[in-house]
Amino acid sequence: MPFQLHLWPSANSPNSKLALDSERLPAPAIECTSYMIEGTPGKPYCGLFSHFNIVEGNMKLRREQLLRLLDRENGETCLSLASYPRLGAPNFTTPWSEPNPSETGVSRSLFFPDEAIYPGHPRFKTLTRNIRSRRGEKVAINVPVFKDKNTQTPFVEVFTNDQSGEGSKAAKPDHIYMDAMGFGMGCSSLQVTFQACSISEALALYDQLIPMCAIMITLSAASPIFRGFLADIDTRWSVIAGSVDCRTKEERGEEPLKHNRFRIGKSRYDTVDSYLSPDNDKFNDTDLVYDKDLCQRIVDSGIDESLAKHVAHLFIRDPVSLFSEKIHQNDEEDSDHFENIQSTNWQSMRFKPPPRNSDIGWRVEFRVMELQLTDFENAAMIIFLVLLTRAILTFNLNFIIPMSKVEANMAESHKRDAVKNSKFYFRKDPSSKSGDGDDVCTQMDINTIINGGSSFPGLIPIIESYIATVDDADVDTCCTITCYLKLLSGRASGRLKTPARWTRDFVESHPAYKHDSVYSEEINYDLMKTFVDIVEGRAEGCTEKLRSTKALGGVLD
Fold first, then answer.
1. CA nearest 53: which of 321, 376, 528?
2. Among 204, 320, 465, 506, whose CB has the most other CB atoms within 10 angstroms?
3. Residue ranges in the chain whose pLDDT is less than 50
4. How many Cα atoms within 13 Å fall on the side-chain side of residue 535?
């Protein structure tokens, strides 16, 4: 029996279990596809040190509440996966619907049925249709295939339902081709939002966390398989970027500018393009495309030029979803027009001004991490990052490097086994505020960045130094944090595997794998069953005592 993604009914459907039980969940939200749900805490955590001890428990509670809605006796369960390995392969959902690549289809995908797009809110099908329409063609995602000893060379697929020929033209040899927004927005991420006490602190956190994006996506890498084929990358980031790339041929530089205003180098889902604090403007060494007239208006209103350029950069994009009742707004009282653009610039970091008529302050959202299989791993990633922000503010640390090096790091982070084989530009001396240009950074491996080396202190030792300064650091919470830091340390050193490497090893050792890069339904069933056993504490070596510290890459000792 295949392992399939179960499509939720519409939340307002009379027979929807989610609709009937939604108030029991701490803040559920249906997402882009019908098989996924977004989980958030019922309310923000406060600044108490002991609250580091309740994050994982809150995640477990949400998982347990969701499981109670499912038909467990008939095999339904929930898994937190960065990407489902057979997304877009035949029969990947239940009920199954054939894709509709004709002009009547929403996405016109060869692989992704419109029925997998969540039907309970018009936003998601509207986004899918408008992104394709604005681009002038379907999105084209090409991920390099992993070349095993029996992989077809060149790796070229024949699409029997490609009546228009668009797919065959867009697909590259030796690549896994995908053609719909659902392939990216159907993936899952681990995101964390930080509350700042002021705009200056928010700007500082935003800038200082930018160089951490590539590091954290490398440590959390969990996406080695796409559309039923082993890929030569380990993360979902480039897939998501391609899935919502609404740029026209003019904006992509394939045709002269005639109908559009700007050449735009990236998808609207990609890495940030600039630091926001004026002190860090000298490290903005890449070309920033922005609306100069709008920027000047913002500067004339008293906003720093760096922040003004950021907002003007967001507004080089057109809206891709707009509802009639939201068109006529009083911008003095409502920020919906800004949020419409802000919320569809899906960048690696997001600077979040306070909403109108709200006591919510300035916030910063860190958006790149891959969702992990277990609550322990997800909590570890988040708490490591939160502790790092507190160390940054307490010790006045400086991780700023040239923006061009940030771009280079992000490209490196996607590579297969980057945590083991790649080097990343990182600040030589995080205690120094002096210097500019390339001289402030050097290439380091992940182990040195996280655990330290002869010439760099290491982020975990920095965090441990911060904890030593905390007056209310109780023993119980410190023990929990130690387990989390061991996970990050183990992955960085290579003692523990990333989820991507663990998954590759499982597939490559499976008796049904033919070393041809094909990830079959049989292998998928066994992998998903193993994932369920790990999450529920039934995997080999996962006793009750070890359940809370069981991670996909191994048991922490």
1. 376
2. 204
3. 12-15, 19-25, 541-549, 555-557
4. 21
Q: Which helix (H) or strand (E) holds 365?
A: strand 363-370
User: Would strands 189-195 and 363-370 be described as parallel, antiparallel, or unpaired?
Assistant: antiparallel
164, 339 in Cβ contact below 8 A?
Answer: no
1 Cβ contact partners less than 8 Å away, ≥ 6 residues apart: 75, 525
**Residue 288 identity (one-letter amino acid):** L
In tens, the pLDDT along 14-57 reads 345 554 444 434 556 778 999 998 988 888 898 899 999 999 99
The whole-angstrom separation of Cα 83 and Cα 531 is: 13
Whether the Cβ atoms of residue 451 and residue 253 lie closer than 8 Å to each other: no
The H or E element spanning position 213 is helix 212-219
- Kind plus residue range of the DSSP H or E element containing 190: strand 189-195
Overall pTM surpassing 0.70 (yes/no): yes
528 Cβ contact partners less than 8 Å away, ≥ 6 residues apart: 3, 79
Q: Which residues contact 414 (CB under 8 A, 6 or more apart)?
A: 217, 233, 234, 235, 237, 238
Quote the DSSP letter at residue 154: S
Evaluate whether 257 touches 284 at the Cβ level (below 8 Å): no
Residue 93 forms beta bridges with which residues? 5
Long-range CB contacts (within 8 A, 24+) of 456-463: 456/426, 456/428, 457/430, 459/388, 460/485, 460/488, 460/489, 462/388, 462/391, 462/395, 462/397, 462/430, 463/384, 463/387, 463/388, 463/391
Q: How far apart are CA 256 and CA 162, in angstroms?
A: 29
Q: What whole-number distance in Å separates Cα of residue 312 and Cα of residue 319?
A: 14
Q: Shortest CA distance to 132 belongs to which of 141, 145, 120?
A: 141
